Amino acid sequence: MAESNQGNASGRAEGLRQRRTGEVVSAKMAKTVVVQVARRVEHPKYKRVIRMAKKFYAHDEQGQCREGDRVEIEETRPLSKLKRWRVVRVLQKARA
């Protein structure tokens, strides 16, 4: 009665995939780009807002991404040792 979400330990609904927005920092591999996702967090002790960044390897099937592009990536099944994300769309092309 109290727990309606027994099978899902994380509390997320089944089928929902995380999406993130970031900047392509490397597009030198075949069908793979490295996307840096920046976020702002408050330091727990000093209360100062700091920028943190994490890099994700994402699958780019069409090879449409270039360095500097802003892209949206989505969580997916493991595609290789490091790739667990795929490029959904290019939000903004890099300046030439």
Structure description:
Helices cover 0% and strands 49% of the residues. A 5-stranded mixed beta barrel has the order 1-2-3-5-4. The chain has 96 residues and is mostly beta strands. The protein has one domain: OB fold (Dihydrolipoamide Acetyltransferase, E2P) (Beta Barrel). The protein contains no helices and 5 strands. The model has no long low-confidence stretch (mean pLDDT 89).
N- to C-terminal distance: 59 Å
Average of per-residue pLDDT values: 89
**How much of the residues is beta strand, in percent?**
over 45%
What strand line-up does the widest sheet have? 1-2-3-5-4
- Estimate percent helicity: under 10%
Number of strands: 5
How would you concisely characterize the structure shown here?
The chain is mostly beta strands. Helix content is 0%, strand content 49%. It has strands at 19-29, 32-42, 49-59, 70-75, 85-92.
